[in-house]
User: What shape does this take?
Amino acid sequence: MFLYNLLMINICSKEDTLKKLEILSDAAKYDIACTSSGVDRKGKEGKLGNNVASGICHTFSSDGRCISLLKILMTNHCIFDCKYCINRKSNDIRRACFTPREICELTVEFYKRNYIEGLFLSSGIINSPNFTMERICETLSLLRNEYMFNGYVHVKAIPGSSDELLLQAGSLADRMSVNIEFPTESSLKKYAPNKSFNLISNPMKKIKDSIAMNRLSIGESPKLPRSNINKYIPGSIFNDVAQIEGDNILKSSLITKQANVRPFVPSGQSTQMIIGAGDDSDYTILMTAQNLYKDFDLKRVFYSAYIPVNEDSSLPSPGTAVPLLREHRLYQADWLIRFYGFNARELLSKEEPDFNTYIDPKCNWAVKHLEYFPVEVQTADISRLLRVPGIGPKAAKRIVSSRRHSLLDFNSLAKMGVVLKRAHYFLTCNGKMMYKTLLDEKYITNRLIMLGGNKNFQQSYQSKRQLSLFDDFGLK
Assistant: This one.
């Protein structure tokens, strides 16, 4: 405890809470996912509540609601020297550290003002992984048991911390994540010399096994629930995963149903990979993501486009364009793997390892496999319908349900949510296409590129970034 107090004095002596918030919410903004964008909404007469974008990111609940989270670091002090990280120990930056109670008070006060519905807590590493994880667990314990906060909490697990601390954090958090950062051991060693795949995969496996054990203890399947559409797709990786580990847990344990067991990480675990810092191809990244889903039953893999902030010969120089469009394509491909039954090897290969940034991955796959098209909507099964660009899981289920009672036409498909401007190249209704279309790869590719020609993610970075309460709204 004396060492902790000494560190607090050295790192952030006489820093008031607002100053710490400025430093540590700003330090967290580089950890960007597709759900990380600020929202500012002033109060209006006759309406209840308002919103500010102070290091706020978003997640989505199982019913589709968007939840605003206070996203901060416990500290930006770190004993590691990862080349890509703004908070690495060799950088000369302002450092600060919250106490567990300060984080709790900030979270509760922001919640009372309707700014947030939950907390996203990460941290640099003070002294050691175990020391830092102890402070995180103390924060969660205070928040849940003393402040009685029942909102959503996402916490980053610290690689290298003990199993006991991981279990304690998991019993208090809704979601945990251990960031893998790079898709290969060689890249991780190059850019994060203090980390290794074993250091990251061990807590991932512990969290996965603990989730499975907890679900079995309350009489549920050891695997996390997935989209209902997956059960209709024979090729889905989530149907192919063997249940051996869950079966072994069940056979080796005398487990009875317990009604009052607190869920362990009920929203599952996630991870993140940095895009554009190294030279790994999209194929390597996507194959690693697919293996992570299968091996660790992850809920999400996040892809974070690298923002060049450090001077290093092995990294893109500051001022280099942020690869947001590449990040966007990887998210689209990830969605195809999770909800459409695609395999990473179908979307990319060693011969063609990177996505065509001009069209989305599903369209790119379709134009390269025209032998499967056109698909007849009156007879195709749901797995084939999901391969058609412009048809999503909801629309596919509506088609299968509606065609039992009547013949479908293109107008009815549009009402079901089919995006005909893409789908009409690959569909027939009762044997007829919407327009006379040449099934030629080059012709269809050019037409699809024209459809997306007005979208320029690269130039719109300033409007897509996570906002700052201090820089963007002038609060000092």
